[in-house]
């Protein structure tokens, strides 16, 4: 445990961290990649170029310092990050490298303030937190390795199906090359994949939501083809769409993620936008198989009909279970008269009376801006935060 003296010193450095801002973590990453370029095969270099990862790391470091006396407040963040780390196959040795460059960054950016006492306090604080992650991640690694169909690290999979779901989204069904079983997962979790795209100097690791309920023999991921060229966004998604075909192979990490459907007697509302529909497909399938009496409402928003993925698949599941659906097209191609199809941005006020706002469980997945707007609407309807569960693409953001 950290001593009271260490805690007080960490707290005293908060103003210094806040004045440095994300520039601190930008310097850290530049330093680390210069000295340990092999880590470029683990970290998402697109997020490095855009600055999103630097901001996310700075916010995590600042949150740790501010909650140094109440680490329980960070338990949800620790669980989320630990799951993400296992999808990159982060090892204990990596924490030593990161810790070294973090301490050296503080020394280089604040040489006068970084006294021996401050160095000792931050070193102890980092080692304490790192051990929490190392222990939790090892637990996750062992659980998955020992379970039926489980493994540790990467496992080679083969693409056995490739299906276009909409204008921008394509599904890939993956089976293990060794012909064995695959680990079950919680609907809502994701799969880490490792590829070497054409035009990239590094191995690239990405996470994609599993878009099908567990089968025991295969996984399905559904990938949106990113069209932006800024910061090389879409490097991996375009490679998958363009070059990954039936018979292609890729390395896969076991399923991970702390966002998943939690069985309950309460009504369920699934809310997604764009490719955020992928984990919802797994949830819809799983709920339908387990409990046909469950009350489910599915709300989805996307640009237009051409970008609406899983239309027929979703309609079949909903009809078989008597569930309700509402869809919003921001810029529809055609005029829609159906009462469950709306134009513009998602507006829950029109269907408020049909939503279980007082006792339902709400699951959200989509762009941050979309989810922030939906959460604000739900809270205005007196839905407690404890009943709102969400997943964020990319570096995590709080809603």
From TrEMBL:
Extract the PROSITE patterns matched here: FAD_FR, GLOBIN
Q: Which residues form the Globin domain?
A: 1-138
Q: Name one GO biological process term.
A: response to toxic substance
* Site (Involved in heme-bound ligand stabilization and O-O bond activation) residue list: 29
* Binding residues annotated for heme b, in chain numbering: 85
Q: Where does FAD bind?
A: 190, 206-209, 392-395
Q: Residues at site: Influences the redox potential of the prosthetic heme and FAD groups? A: 84, 391
Reaction it catalyzes: 2 nitric oxide + NADPH + 2 O2 = 2 nitrate + NADP(+) + H(+); 2 nitric oxide + NADH + 2 O2 = 2 nitrate + NAD(+) + H(+)
Q: Which cofactor does it need?
A: heme b; FAD
Instruction: Give GO terms: molecular function aspect only.
Output: FAD binding; heme binding; metal ion binding; nitric oxide dioxygenase NAD(P)H activity; oxygen binding; oxygen carrier activity
Which residues does the entry assign to the active site, renumbered to this chain? 95, 137
Q: How is the cofactor bound?
A: Binds 1 heme b (iron(II)-protoporphyrin IX) group per subunit. Binds 1 FAD per subunit.
Where do the FAD-binding FR-type domain residues begin and end? 152-262
Give the EC number.
1.14.12.17
Residue ranges, annotated region (Reductase): 149-399
Q: Does the keyword Ubl conjugation apply?
A: no
* Keyword terms, alphabetized: Detoxification, FAD, Flavoprotein, Heme, Iron, Metal-binding, NAD, NADP, Oxidoreductase, Oxygen transport, Transport
What's written under domain? Consists of two distinct domains; an N-terminal heme-containing oxygen-binding domain and a C-terminal reductase domain with binding sites for FAD and NAD(P)H.
Q: Which HAMAP family match?
A: Hmp
Q: State the family named in the UniProt similarity comment for this chain.
A: In the C-terminal section; belongs to the flavoprotein pyridine nucleotide cytochrome reductase family. Belongs to the globin family. Two-domain flavohemoproteins subfamily.
Could you tell me what this protein does? Answer: Is involved in NO detoxification in an aerobic process, termed nitric oxide dioxygenase (NOD) reaction that utilizes O(2) and NAD(P)H to convert NO to nitrate, which protects the bacterium from various noxious nitrogen compounds. Therefore, plays a central role in the inducible response to nitrosative stress.
Its name, as the record gives it, is: Flavohemoprotein
To which species is this protein native? Vibrio chaetopteri
Q: What is the lineage of its organism?
A: Bacteria, Pseudomonadati, Pseudomonadota, Gammaproteobacteria, Vibrionales
């Amino acid at each position: 445990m950290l001593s009271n003296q260490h805690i007080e010193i960490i707290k005293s450095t908060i103003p210094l961290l806040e004045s440095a801002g994300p520039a601190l973590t930008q310097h850290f990453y530049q330093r680390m990649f210069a000295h340990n370029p092999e880590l470029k095969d683990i970290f998402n270099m697109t997020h490095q170029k855009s600055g999103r990862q630097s901001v996310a790391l700075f916010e995590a470091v600042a949150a740790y310092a501010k909650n140094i006396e109440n680490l329980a407040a960070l338990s949800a963040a620790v669980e989320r990050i630990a799951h993400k780390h296992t999808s990159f196959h982060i090892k204990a040795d990596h924490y030593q490298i990161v810790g070294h460059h973090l301490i050296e960054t503080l020394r280089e950016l604040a040489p006068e303030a970084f006294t021996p006492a401050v160095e000792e306090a931050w070193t102890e604080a980092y080692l304490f937190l790192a051990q929490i992650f190392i222990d939790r991640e090892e637990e996750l690694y062992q659980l998955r390795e020992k379970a039926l169909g489980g493994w540790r690290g990467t496992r080679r999979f083969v693409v056995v199906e490739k299906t276009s779901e909409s204008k921008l989204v394509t599904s890939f069904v993956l089976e293990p090359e060794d012909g064995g079983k695959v680990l079950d997962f919680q609907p809502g979790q994701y799969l880490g994949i490792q590829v070497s795209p054409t035009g990239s100097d590094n191995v690239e690791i990405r996470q994609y939501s599993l878009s099908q309920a567990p089968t025991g023999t295969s996984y399905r991921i559904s990938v949106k083809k990113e069209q932006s060229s800024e910061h090389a966004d879409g490097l991996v998604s375009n490679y998958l769409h363009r070059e990954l075909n039936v018979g292609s192979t890729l390395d896969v990490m076991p399923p991970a993620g702390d966002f998943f459907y939690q069985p309950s007697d309460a009504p369920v509302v699934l809310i997604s936008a764009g490719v955020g529909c992928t984990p919802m497909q797994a949830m819809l399938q799983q709920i339908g198989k387990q409990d046909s009496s469950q009350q489910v409402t599915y709300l989805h928003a996307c640009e237009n009909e051409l970008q609406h993925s899983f239309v027929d698949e979703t309609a079949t599941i909903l009809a078989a279970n008597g569930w309700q659906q509402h869809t919003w097209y921001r810029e529809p191609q055609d005029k829609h008269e159906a009462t469950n199809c709306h134009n513009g941005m998602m507006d829950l006020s029109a269907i408020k009376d049909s939503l279980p706002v007082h006792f339902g469980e709400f699951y959200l997945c989509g762009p941050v801006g979309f989810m922030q707007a939906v959460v604000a609407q739900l809270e205005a309807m007196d839905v407690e935060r404890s009943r709102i569960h969400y997943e964020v693409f990319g570096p995590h953001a709080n809603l």
